[in-house]
Design a protein that fits this description.
- The protein has 169 residues and is of the alpha+beta class.
- The protein has two domains: 87 residues, no CATH class; 66 residues, no CATH class.
- 49% of the residues lie in helices and 8% in strands.
- It has a four-stranded antiparallel beta sheet.
- The longest helix has 27 residues.
- It starts with a strand and ends in a 5-residue tail after the last strand.
């Protein structure tokens, strides 16, 4: 794992590592860096599809519950209105759509980020304590096909970081 002082240095290091052939790597930053996802070569997130699916399921569930209760299970003729009065169903359908999308976003973020994660090997590196305040880190995983302990260490040193640390599980 290499430690950098600026976000620009981290993005440049991630791009160079990707160009060198490293694919299984991660970056840690105290602030969002828009260019970092592209520099790491990360695929697009599936979260928008999960949120859309949650919204559609929530809307269908809300509409279906109203239809079932007012048309099938307990039909009541109020003021000559038809049993299936779809304009009457719209407010609840909208609210359950928003609820389904919000739950999809919440659960999707937890699942895609592999949370909760109370322990990760990078926590063993003393310098990593500054990752949430003012330092930027690039970590190349040992699962990377191109990973070799000495070669990767020398490559990280060639990026001119503040320091290079070995992450011990």
């Amino acid at each position: 794992m290499a430690e950098f002082e600026t976000p620009t240095a981290l993005v440049a290091a991630a791009e160079r590592a990707r160009l060198e052939g490293y694919r299984d790597m991660d970056a840690y930053s105290p602030i969002p860096i828009e260019e970092l996802g592209e520099a790491l070569g990360l695929p697009r997130t599936r979260l928008p599809r999960i949120v859309l699916g949650g919204g559609i399921l929530g809307g269908l569930a809300g509409y279906g519950l109203q239809y079932w209760s007012q048309v099938i299970e307990y039909p009541m003729n109020v003021g000559g209105r038809p049993f299936h009065s779809w304009p009457h169903f719209i407010p609840v359908t909208f609210e359950t759509t928003v609820l389904g999308a919000a739950l999809g976003a919440f659960i999707g973020m937890w699942a895609l980020n592999k949370l909760p994660m109370p322990y990760h090997p990078v926590f063993n590196v003393p310098a990593f304590a500054r990752a949430s305040t003012d330092r930027f880190f690039l970590c190349i995983e040992t699962t990377d096909p191109r990973f070799d302990r000495h070669t990767t260490f020398k490559f990280l040193e060639s990026l001119h970081p503040l320091g290079v640390s070995e992450v011990v599980p």
